[in-house]
Every structure is written in C-alpha cells, then in structure tokens.
Amino acid sequence: MSDERDRALFTVAGLEDAVHRYLARYTCSTRHLERLLSARLARAARRLGDPPAAPAPLVAAVVARATAAGLLDDAQYAVARARALRRRGVSAAAIAARLARDGLGSDAAAQALAEADRDQDDADLAAALAFARRRRIGPFRAAEARATHRRRDLAALGRAGFSAALAVSVVDHPGDREL
Questions:
Q1: Where are the domains of the chain?
Q2: Are 140 and 176 in contact (CB under 8 A)?
Q3: How far is the C-alpha of 173 from the C-alpha of 145, rounded, in Å?
C-alpha cells in the first residue's frame, strides 16, 4: 500500500470507503467490524512510522454511521450465521460460542438460535445428522466398520457439542443411512 492510501485510512471518508468495500463482499457483526478496522489502522500506522493519533474514536464514529445507515444489523447477522451453522451440522452450544466470539451477547445468540430453529422440529437432531453425514460417521459409515468406530463416532459428536443421548441415538441408529 502507498503512504497516501495509508494516510487516507485515518480520515472518515477513507475509513468509510474501506467499510463499504469490505461489506460489499462480507457480512459481519458490529464488534467484528470494529476489530477489523482497528487492526487495519494499526497495520497502516506501523507502515507509516509516524501515525496520526487516536484511531479508536474514528473507528467508533464510522461503525456508528454504518449501523445508522443500515449496513450493519447484528440481529440479522446472528440469525443468518446461526442458520448457516445449523445447516453445516453445528450444535447449539458451538453456535452460541461462535456468536459470542463475534461480539454478540448470550441473549442475542439465544434469540438468533430460536429464530434459526423456528421451522425445524428437532433442530439438534437435524444438525447432528448433518454433522454425521459430513464426517461420514455413525449411520453414514460403512456397516462393517460401525461397531469398530462406535466410541470414536460418539466422541466426535460429543466434541462437536452434542449431548451424549443425542450422540448415542445418531450413532446407534440401525438404519442404512436413512433416519
């Protein structure tokens, strides 16, 4: 990056341009965007050697403007993220942890998970099955290898955040890939 581009980051217009470019490609939470912009300003400051002072108020102002403009919506982001993670086979506990890492509180995570699971009868079972299918464990493992790998499959489901009872019901299902 050139010095001019680095110096431009320390202006509201330059930082807003960076926000628009990022949000055009990715969705994120407010806290994630704050961390991202702070890190970007820190890298630019190191390259400049003599950085302009006080980037924190600048980051806060730009993030507040993006939120007011409707570019950032933590609740909508949380629901979309929870739905995507559920489809991948992620447990409720792991989803809550990931949303917390993204700067969302436990109440927001619980609401997002409830909204994501609203149309699903047993969302944890569906997520556990998606996890098992993706990892080819339990009923998705070759029939002759199921007994040999039972404990390993149970452990994998447990590490993924699924309850022991749910893990046993998924791994011990007698069907041939149909549940």
A1: 3-68, 74-116, 123-171
A2: no
A3: 14
